Automatic annotation (TrEMBL):
Organism the protein comes from: Allocoleopsis franciscana PCC 7113
SUPFAM superfamilies: S-adenosyl-L-methionine-dependent methyltransferases (SSF53335)
InterPro entries in the cross-refs: SAM-dependent_MTases_sf
GO MF terms held by the record: methyltransferase activity
Keyword Transferase: yes
A Pfam family per the record: Methyltransf_23
Domain of life: Bacteria
Annotated keywords: Methyltransferase, Transferase, Ubiquinone
Protein name: Methylase involved in ubiquinone/menaquinone biosynthesis
Biological processes annotated in GO: methylation
Length: 228
């Protein structure tokens, strides 16, 4: 384990049950919502961008897995023991030791709202190459940071970085990646409410189009390929 891995492991206690209870209580307390939410992201990230959701995916920094649980062939990785144990209890293939991630094994590496939590994003991006098959792609989802209020203390989100499309492109090229597609990605609007009325697939379709009409909770989506 290198020094950056040691630093990240030392921060694991930040992402314990209290963290997930305060940030994602709706996700793991409601199985139906968890399933619908994952179907929503399958549509928004994969299907709408013509990425085959049935190929091999590594969800790096997966949290509770709510973004990728609906995918057919997904391996979950997170440094948080709590998150990994949650996934294992629900029958998912989940790892929390980075040395156990197989190399040259995945068609896509998904990093959704994860890289901003890393104190070493450039090193992470360089390491991501090793996990992808030849021709594999990186799918990067990042928050849009717009808060201009002064702050002299850390908050519970523990975001260490923020990017624009231009600055993440600069970093990706520096780390051996070439972006091939970028667009804004919107979070689900009224998905839980709609999902209690109609079928899961109908709820996903309705919430997806409502989210784009409302421009709900935008994120930066970048799809990139290895330069070498």
């Amino acid at each position: 384990m290198n020094s950056s891995d040691t630093n990240k492991r030392s921060d694991i206690e930040l992402y314990n049950q209290d963290y997930y209870s305060s940030h994602y209580a709706r996700v793991f307390e409601d199985k139906n919502y968890y399933e619908i939410l994952s179907l929503y992201w399958k549509k928004a990230i994969f299907e709408q961008n013509k990425l085959n959701p049935d190929l091999d995916v590594l969800d790096f920094g997966c949290g509770l897995g709510q973004v990728s649980a609906a995918l057919k062939n997904v391996t979950f990785f997170d440094y948080s023991d709590y998150a990994v144990n949650f996934l294992k209890r629900n029958g998912k293939k989940a790892l929390n030791c980075i040395e156990n991630i197989p190399e040259n094994s995945f068609d896509f590496l998904l990093s959704s709202h994860s890289l901003e939590h890393s104190p070493t994003p450039a090193e992470d991006l360089k390491n991501f190459h090793r996990y992808l098959k030849p021709g594999g792609k990186l799918i990067l989802v990042l928050p849009v940071e717009v808060d201009l209020k002064p702050s002299l203390v850390p908050d519970s989100n523990q975001h260490f970085q923020c990017w624009t499309f231009q600055t993440i492109t600069n970093l990706l090229f520096h780390c051996g990646w070439r972006p091939v597609h970028q667009n804004l990605l919107y979070g689900p609007f009224l998905l839980k409410t709609i999902g209690s009325i109609v079928s899961q697939n109908q709820a996903v379709k309705i919430a997806y189009w409502l989210s784009y009409l409302k421009k709900n909770y935008p994120s930066l989506l970048t799809i990139a390929e290895s330069i070498n």
